[in-house]
């Protein structure tokens, strides 16, 4: 190859690399501020709506955070979580792993506000992730810059939900494996579980630790409260019986969760095990000591989770309403 042409090749390569870095595009196909030209107000509108909803119903912020996990960890951040059941398919929302999930109808309010400004431009998958990001801030957590450009899936993934989302009593080995498949390490897993510093757990997920006899691993000081809240060995599925995940600061995303689980006050088996498994305990201890260390890993892990295998480019679609695929809404 003549020196001039190899020089040109190198030059072109450098230009390509620089332009890819320049607009922040990553291997996921997502980028910072994807809607800069097509809907510059998108992120502000979402932030404003999340704030308004939070003022009315504080627990909406818990839901936005939990949504990131339940959508992104099931194969792809594609808002498949939000689809309603159809005549042919069951929604992910109605599977057992989604038990207790709430506030989906308020997500439509956010979508509607964005649609009023930029119809047909911003995906539900991005709205789901960005509302989660803003929910974290409302709860006192860190602001996490996140990429956008996700597109919406057309199908429910309800048949595989159980393969991807760990159960409340799953082993730490299995939990670590599931997150490792998304590039999230043990420190990241420990940080993400810190989400259980807010919100609630229904008695149906807890009674097996209370009846027929109380799990000896539970802190005896915490048991009377749990028994009072979950007085029924077989809870009435229609009654709303639950225990708050963090009695100390139930509305704040903070590192109190780690002190609770070290104190054997973790509600779920996975919470308890996290503090006792040798692979995760060192991080639990560090996060219990330092909120900054917790937030640092939390931000990193949320970013990874939110970039799990998204649909981009011309894959999927931009849904008009988050609870139905366009085809089901406009045709047939
Ligand atoms: C091993 C992994 C996990 C398991 C087994 C698990 C399981 C659960 C269960 C059983 C509940 C109680 C639901 C109810 O009874 O209403 C819950 C609540 C919650 N989870 Fe997780 N979770 C896991 C990881 C995560 C992650 C990674 C996040 C966020 C990134 C998260 C966020 C939440 C939130 C915010 C709540 C409270 C929801 C509310 O009060 O509405 N969880 N989780
Ligand atoms: C976990 O709990 C479910 C009930 O929620 C039960 O069916 C299952 O057998 C339990 N699994 C283990 C490994 O204990």
What does it look like?
The chain contains 14 helices and 2 strands. With 332 residues, it is mostly helical. It has 2 domains: 147 residues, Peroxidase, domain 1 (Orthogonal Bundle); 134 residues, Orthogonal Bundle (Peroxidase, domain 2). The radius of gyration is 22 Å and the shape is globular. 41% of the residues are buried. About 4% of the residues have low confidence. The structure holds protoporphyrin IX containing FE and 2-acetamido-2-deoxy-beta-D-glucopyranose. 2-acetamido-2-deoxy-beta-D-glucopyranose binds next to loops.
Number of domains: 2
Within the largest sheet, what's the order of strands?
1-2
Number of beta-strand segments? 2
Catalogue the ligands. protoporphyrin IX containing FE, 2-acetamido-2-deoxy-beta-D-glucopyranose
Helix/strand order, N-terminal first: HHHHHHHHEHEHHHHH
Counting copies of identical and different chains, the oligomeric state is single chain
Q: From the 3D structure, determine the CATH topology of the largest domain.
A: Peroxidase, domain 1
Helix content: 40-55%
The helix tally amounts to 14
Highest-level CATH class of the largest domain = Mainly Alpha
Shape descriptor: globular
Binding site for heme b: 196
Cofactor: Ca(2+); heme b
Protein name: Peroxidase
Domain Plant heme peroxidase family profile: 29-326
